[in-house]
Amino acid sequence: MHFKYFNSIILLSFLTGLLNGCSNTPKSSINNSPEQEVQKQTFLAIRNVNVIPMTSENKIIKNATVIIKGDKIVSINESLPDNTKIIDGTGKWLMPGLIDMHVHNLADINFSSNYPTKGAASFTNTQDFMLLYVVNGVTTVFELSARVEHFGQRNEIIKGNVIGPRIALAALIDGGNRSGKVANTPSDGRQFVRLSKAEGYEFIKVYSHLNIETYYAIIDEAKKQGMKVIGHIPDVFKGRTEEAFISHFGMVAHAEEYSKQTDKFTDEVAHEFAQMTKENGTWLTPTLTTMEWIVNQSRSLNGVRNLQSLEYVHPLMQSKWLTSNDYNKGSNPERIAYFEQLVDFHKKLVKAFYKVGVPIVAGTDAGTSGVVWGYSLHDEIELLVEAGLTPNEALLSATRLPATWLEIDDKIGTVEVGKFADLILLDANPLNDIKNIRKISGVFVNGQWVDKIKIDSMLSDLSKRNTANKDKYDWKKRREN
Ligand SMILES: [Zn+2]
User: Fold this and answer.
1) Residue 17 C-alpha to ligand 1 middle, in angstroms?
2) Is the CB of residue 100 less than 8 Å from the CB of residue 138?
3) Ligand 1 center to residue 252 CA distance, Å?
4) Sign for the pseudo-dihedral over CA of 419, 423, 425, 429
5) Which residues contact 78 (CB under 8 A, 6 or more apart)?
6) From CA 111, how far away is CA 118, in angstroms rounded?
7) C-alpha 148 – ligand 1 centre gap (Å)
8) From ligand 1's centre to the CA of 186, what distance in Å?
9) How remote is the CA of residue 7 from the centroid of ligand 1, in Å?
10) From ligand 1's centre to the CA of 85, what distance in Å?
């Protein structure tokens, strides 16, 4: 009975891999823009700020001076070079930029392929989309069903045409009678892994409908190719879940991967799952916020309608969430009660996993209806605290820990000399109250400073554009282009 619900949860992930547009004017030069070159030479200092380094010691550095040059943190508490631009950090808190380990970014898409050369038919502006991450201090994201368009988006950011997060890309491989990269034999599974590597993907995502032998082969081949594996626990493992935990299965992408595997939502079952995950060295991205939103929408669409961040969401997705919402299909008390049980069980899972020492990282499944890119990561961090993590651990789950899993912890995830300047300046201490993570005074994205005034004006422009364009987008008519 659960499976019909879960299929709908998870399939949405594919649908949301939409829309983007690299619509900024291309630079005529192959080099960086003059503004970027100037910024590279300039020193920026945040003075008198309290630093939350998120290192293993995580000792707060009070009233510090943090100096940034180009894209790097070059010193902490050393004297100021000449011509340094000063940002006053008095009474504020500086922490590493946040990492969302489970997203589905909007990218250009063709909903109705019908002739060669047609290409995409639905677009959005990459900057408008990436802004949602920037304004929330999300400076790295893990795209879990990447397509070629996502490489293009990432290049726009790297070239400096768009300000946005670092992006890790996973190729999704499913089985059964699906579309996309579908493998139903071990040799096909291995071939897709090698192909994904050749295409430039860095990670593999395994999916729900793989058969056992193919799933094993994919993970084995990924190991040979040096690609880490994240994903779902294939449905076929129900009743024998521990057999899914083989060497090199690196991360489970949702807490609901476990609730799909059982009909008993008890602490004992949660503990068993935690134990087998721990023994295998596998990590967990619980995506608690997704299930909260599923319950919310199965009751009514008012929650989505009243979302403050909805005005920043691409109008096509607003239309989808409000007029074709897969979770809101008339009142169904049985279904709602089931989802409520899951919300509860997922918190039990987080508690159990935390207790046995499975590393937990923050991810949102952003792009699922109601789960707004960027904003939802703050929700997830709060939910992790509700589930029993301390504020420090919840922040760790969205900074240093995911950087470690992605194997870029020498570059991001902490506030340390030599690291990329991906930073959030907060008006209040998030270690005292996790809600303070929302009190953003400014963000450094790869060394580029975006203050609150700029954030507010960019958001207000985006909202105006979305409102003006609203009538042009109707999810139900998306194939008519
Ligand atoms: Zn997902």
Assistant:
1) 10
2) yes
3) 11
4) negative
5) 65, 67
6) 11
7) 17
8) 24
9) 12
10) 41
- Burial classification of residue 435, based on how many CB atoms lie within 10 Å of its CB (0-12 exposed, 13-18 middle, 19 or more buried): middle
Dig out the tokens for 254 from the structure.
């949702």
Instruction: Tell me the CA–centroid distance for residue 351 and ligand 1, in Å.
Output: 22
DSSP state of 324: S
Name 95's bridge partners.
424
Closest among 199, 156, 152, 155 to 180, alpha carbons compared? 199
Distance 242 CA to ligand 1 centre (A): 22
CA of 315 to the centre of ligand 1 (A): 21
Would you say the C-alpha torsion 341, 323, 128, 113 has a positive or negative sign? positive
Strand 440-445 and strand 448-451: the pairing is: antiparallel
Centroid of ligand 1 to alpha carbon of 468 (angstroms): 30
Under DSSP, the state recorded for 330 is S
Residue 160 near residue 36 (C-beta atoms within 8 A)? yes
Residue 90 alpha carbon to ligand 1 centre in Å: 39
Q: How far is the CA of 369 from the centre of ligand 1 (A)?
A: 11
Q: Give distance in angstroms: CA of 144 to centre of ligand 1.
A: 6
CA 50 / ligand 1 centre spacing (Å): 35
Residues forming beta bridges with residue 103, ordered by sequence position: 143, 366
Residue 136 CA, ligand 1 centroid: distance in Å: 20
What is the CA(254)–ligand 1 centre distance, in A? 8
Domain residue spans of the chain: 2-25+97-414+456-480
Cα separation of 67 and 79, whole Å?
Answer: 9
Q: 376 with 304: CB under 8 angstroms?
A: no
Give, for all 481 residues of the chain, the pLDDT tens digit: 333 343 334 433 433 444 333 334 343 444 555 555 555 668 999 999 999 999 999 999 999 999 999 999 999 999 999 989 999 999 999 999 999 999 999 999 888 877 888 888 888 899 999 999 999 999 999 999 999 999 999 999 999 999 999 999 999 999 999 989 999 999 999 999 999 999 999 999 999 999 999 999 999 999 999 999 999 999 999 999 999 999 999 999 999 999 999 999 999 999 999 999 999 999 999 999 999 999 999 999 999 999 999 999 999 999 999 999 989 887 789 999 999 999 999 999 999 999 999 999 999 999 999 999 999 999 999 999 999 999 999 999 999 999 999 999 999 999 999 999 999 999 999 999 999 999 999 999 999 999 999 999 999 999 999 999 999 999 999 888 6
What class is the 2-25+97-414+456-480 domain? alpha beta
Q: How far is the CA of 383 from the centre of ligand 1 (A)?
A: 18
Q: How far is the CA of 205 from the centre of ligand 1 (A)?
A: 10
